[in-house]
Design goal:
Blueprint (H helix, E strand, L loop, with lengths): L2 E5 L3 H11 L4 E5 L2 H11 L3 E5 L7 H12 L5 E5 L4 H10 L3 E4 L4 H12 L21 H14 L2 E9 L2 H7 L1 H17 L6 E6 L2 E7 L4 H23 L8 E9 L6 H17 L5 E4 L13 H8 L9 E2 L2 H17 L3 E11 L6 H18 L5 E6 L2 E7 L3 H16 L7 E11 L12 E3 L1
Parallel strand pairs: 1-2, 1-3, 3-4, 4-5, 9-10, 11-13
Antiparallel strand pairs: 6-8, 6-9, 7-8, 12-14, 12-15, 13-14, 15-16
Length: 449
């Protein structure tokens, strides 16, 4: 069987790639460049699938060292979460045989490897039966499996929902969110058995059927391990400074020996899930019957508090989408005027210093500026990227002298960043004075840089 070496400092990504390829190839793994060189010396794999960004020795450095020792026939395919064109250009310059972005779709990775090795591999022909991101059954296929299983087998049906997942996409980007989802699918796999059924039913919600499990201690143990696995992987993926209160809420229901309908069981597990959400999240609950547990009701204010309280406070300004900014903006303006407060509106515009500035570099500078000012603002401040090169800020409860000091601090902090050499930053400031007697509280006190 053809050997492939997977090199990645993230254990979860090694696990994902290994699971996808192990049915067709003999998979070797290494967690660092140094370890990869030892494995290559012993095993001489036909292909190396290597991450680019790794501590101590990058994928590019590993490629150069191996080529210097073993010649130009070495076959290396790089993988990375970097979305820039520069990453692709660099792999081509290095002479790599291929490139794939993480998170990769299972069939896409298999096909890419097949092309590079010239093998005939068995790729899932019914692509619509598998979730393109995780390789798990799609919602429709899963439902058919669950309907049959719940009628024929006993066990436990579980719904697993990632708490506060929206913040991952909002703060770190959808690409990182997809990688986290892919890793979460592997975490569930690692904590269930081969005969169990698992699948993804919404973006961040999964379902599992555990064959012949009807012990709450077992459910509690699985829930705890999955929670710990997710948090550990999130820190590995996003850094130890990651402060999003991620976790997993699990709602479960026992499936008796007698035939049961999946839809009814799912609704019961869903009620148990919401009881966990209302109780603080990051735990599990087993549904028995609605009358025996007052927490498993269908309505009430608490449920709506949970539904709309998904986004938890985090450090820095409150990042919102432009289409949502208008509603919060109007509310805060009304609040400021009604209760005679002060607030400040700021519009930052970033323009290239050189007409020849690379478009990717310009985009990266704009993103870096947004990250910089967001981290320096208060949790009560609002920020939205309203144009490709513009950020609109609303700063409640701030006087004009303090607003001026804040602007000075933001710009001074930006000047210490490398990207500041590539763009000019312009701003417009407008104070909102709730004590003003003017009919238009927005116009009188406007200034620009």
């Amino acid at each position: 069987m053809t050997k492939i070496l997977i090199v990645d400092d993230e254990a979860m990504m090694r696990m994902v790639a290994k699971r996808i390829l192990s049915g067709q190839y003999e998979i070797l793994t290494a967690s660092s460049g140094a370890e990869a060189m030892d494995v290559y010396e012993r095993e001489r794999p036909a292909l190396i699938l290597s991450d680019i960004l790794m501590p101590e020795m990058s994928g590019f450095e590993l490629h150069d060292k191996l080529r210097s020792q073993y010649g130009d026939d070495l076959r290396v395919m790089f993988m990375t979460a970097d979305e820039s064109q520069a990453a692709v250009d660099e792999t081509q310059y290095r002479g790599a045989v291929g490139f794939i972005r993480k998170p990769f779709q299972p069939n896409a990775l298999l096909r890419r490897v097949e092309q590079l090795l010239g093998d005939r591999v068995t790729v899932n022909s019914a692509e619509d039966s598998s979730d393109s991101l995780t390789g798990l059954p799609t919602k429709d296929v899963l439902e058919k499996l669950m309907i049959q299983t719940c009628r024929e087998k006993s066990g436990t049906l579980m719904i697993l929902d990632i708490d506060c997942f929206k913040l991952v996409n909002e703060i770190y980007g959808r690409n990182i969110g997809d990688i986290l989802l892919q890793g979460f699918a592997e975490i569930i796999r690692a904590n269930t058995r081969s005969g169990d059924i698992i699948g993804r039913i919404t973006n961040d919600e999964f379902v599992a059927f555990l064959n012949h499990v009807s012990d709450e201690k077992a459910i509690s143990s699985i829930s705890s391990r999955i929670n710990k696995g997710l948090v550990d992987y999130a820190h590995e993926l996003m850094g130890e400074a990651m402060s999003i209160p991620l976790g997993v809420s699990v709602g479960a229901v026992y499936v008796p020996d007698s035939p049961c309908e999946y839809e009814e069981l799912f609704n019961s597990a869903d009620k148990a899930l919401y009881s966990v959400k209302r109780s603080g999240k990051h735990g599990h609950a087993v549904y028995r019957n609605q009358n025996s547990d007052p927490n498993l009701d269908d309505g009430g204010l608490q449920r709506f508090s949970q539904m709309y309280g998904e986004v938890q406070p985090h450090n820095g300004a409150f990042l919102i989408k432009p289409e949502s900014f208008d509603y919060l903006y109007q509310f805060l303006i009304r609040y400021t005027i009604t209760y005679h407060r002060e607030a400040c509106k700021l519009l930052f515009t970033l323009l290239p210093k050189s007409p020849n500035l690379d478009a990717n570099c310009y985009a990266e500078a704009i993103t870096a500026f947004g990250d910089q000012i967001s981290a320096m603002l208060r949790k009560s401040d609002l920020i939205a990227q309203v144009q490709d090169n513009q950020y609109l800020l609303l700063l409640p409860e701030i006087t004009e002298p303090n607003a001026d000091k804040l602007i000075e601090r933001l710009l001074r902090g930006w000047e210490t960043k490398a990207f500041s050499a590539t763009v000019n930053v312009q701003y417009e400031k407008e104070m909102i004075d709730g004590d003003s007697d003017d009919d238009d509280a927005f116009a009188p006190r406007r200034s620009t840089d």
